[in-house]
Protein: Methylthioribose-1-phosphate isomerase
Amino acid sequence: MATLQAIKYNDGQLEILDQLLLPESCIFIPICNVEDAWAAIREMKVRGAPAIAIVGCLSLAVELRKLAAPETKEELCRFVKEKLDYLVTSRPTAVNTQLAAEACVKLCARLTDNTSVDTTAAKEDIIKHLEAMLADDVADNLAIGEHGARDITKKNATKDKLRILTHCNTGSLATAGYGTALGVIRSLHKANKLDQVYCTETRPYNQGSRLTAFELVYEKMPATLVCDSMAAAAMKQFKIDAVIVGADRVAANGDTANKIGTYQLAVLAKSHDVLFYVAAPFSSIDFQIPNGQSIPIEERPHSEMTHTGSIRTAAAGINCWNPGFDVTPAELITGGIITEKGVFKPDQLAPHQSN
Ligand SMILES: CSC[C@H]1O[C@H](OP(=O)(O)O)[C@H](O)[C@@H]1O
Structure:
């Protein structure tokens, strides 16, 4: 069975699954330009570190396909950089869009310097570069799945099947397909090594109950929904073998920003002697920052806490604190960081970065 798709892109036509309508409705909406993408990302119609970068960059490819080639490559690259700089402002914590923008700007510089490439050919090269992100991300996720499943199985060699707890949504709805942490869970399931997935609701946006549960039911994986407040009791009661979460930005030392609630799961995993893994492609690792203290944490609207849809569920007038993310220190990531290049100790990432 094919896994769910959050992003549809064919010959310059881009559509995204409006995740605000899940799980009740599966409705794709068109993204016709960078402004559409920015709004959809900010409103979290599409979310998930890799998916945000991919939708942003594909929206630029949509615009470039319609754009008459400018007079000069310098003009073309100014256009591209301006659009990418705007996209990066949509949500501050995930680093994927920033890294994708930097890579595209470097490509523009190489094309500008290459006198054998004219403006039209340069535009085509940039479009191809942006469009390749879809397939590259799926390939990364399949590799993450295999590396992660192998490592967890090896570290639980006496267990026939494994019990995994996961947080937020890190599956096909957060990426171009297959997923990161949920990709590892898919690979464990494929290898017939999965006893049960416990997915947390992940308040206040409920990525777990609305999105991860949707993916797990869709693919008939053995899964149980738990409230965020049940995590400690679940680890004790069900003897969880490992916690696997995603990442929005991993710092050079392995400190990891991920959905709010991740840090407390890491603390609980430590106290219950449960392995704690982060699953993330290198496109989520920011080697430009030394540790987690430099990671910007997005504050989301208070209405995400005080309302469920249009229904108020918190007392009017109460003050709120609604950070979208928290930072888990590297020393709590006891299982390691699962990447498309392998599983590494949190402080062992730098030697494996691409040049
Ligand atoms: C595949 S990483 C997904 C990552 O992004 C989520 O945040 P959001 O739903 O706010 O975009 C969450 O932190 C996940 O771990």
